[in-house]
Amino acid sequence: MRKKTVLITGGAGFIGSHMCEKLLAKDYRVICLDNFITGTLINVKPLLEDKNFQLVECNVASYIDIAGKIDYVLHCASLASPNDYLDYPIQTLKVGSLGTHNALGLAKQKKAVFLLFSTSEVYGDPLVHPQVESYWGHVNPIGVRGCYDESKRFAEAITMAYHRMHKLDTKIVRIFNTYGPRMRRNDGRVVPNLICQALNSKPLTIYGKGQQTRSFCYIDDLVDGLIRLMLAKENLPVNLGNPNEFTISQLSRLVLRLTNSKSKIAYKRLPLDDPKQRQPDISKARKCLGWEPVISLEEGLKRTISWFKK
Length: 310
Ligand code: UDP
Fold this sequence. Notes:
Blueprint lengths: L4 E5 L4 H12 L3 E6 L6 H4 L8 E5 L14 E4 L6 H6 L1 H22 L2 E7 L26 H21 L3 E6 L2 E2 L10 H10 L4 E4 L5 E3 L1 E2 H13 L6 E3 L4 E3 H12 L5 E4 L14 H7 L7 H13 L1
Parallel strand pairs: 1-2, 1-4, 2-3, 4-5, 5-6, 6-11, 7-10, 8-13
Antiparallel strand pairs: 9-12
Helix pairs in contact: 1-7, 4-5, 6-8, 6-10, 8-10
This protein binds uridine-5'-diphosphate.
């Protein structure tokens, strides 16, 4: 039987490279697109020996031209760390808008299933807690995070338009904070920051008073959910994340304990528009995908710490 082909944009990034690896292991052909703005070749280097893996360097916000049959288009490409989208707001807007349009056009041409990697940021600084898919969000369109939040909200809107107008089989995942091996040391997000600071005996930077919350999902759990959604019938957005909610202070204490670090805490200014709380309601994923995370924060952090040590 012919192997199914999956094209993944942003395939050399943190989440993308784990998806490539898992899909190859599940016997798919994988075409990975990346412009290496935040993705790196190192993430996919071991996969280059696999004859079912193809790497194409390109910017999906400009144009996508790929020959041959494609069964699934996964649009994962994006800057995803607040640090990165503050540095590259225009690229962030372009990959979420023009990049999504191009990826949808490709899926339409190839009659492929399309999966948009959206984000919990579409809920902004939420007034509903935990966040359920039916919540429309509380986003500042002109704030510093607006470039990310609004590009993803646009991406969801154009995805639904292609679904309704062109009858494309589209899916939308809203990904909540995810962590694990292959995050960049200088990524800027809280988990790699705190782990690297603890391992290097530097002060752990906590923004604000550390009372803001996040719910952290280990990458392997997320990838399992993403593949289930890719194959599912659901066309409306589905939250994927771990519903266990922690304050950033609690996270910092856990990191200190698991790294045996004596680092102190350095309190820094809270970034503008930083959401105060975030926790996914995953009832829908449980029901339509039979999915829920199984890796605890402690276990996931241990695995991530040992990867950063190497
Ligand atoms: N944060 C922190 N110290 C850091 C990096 C981030 O206290 O070194 C906080 C940040 O202000 C936010 C939370 O940790 O409240 C998660 O930030 P991250 O950048 O990981 O992702 P976000 O969920 O905000 O997109």
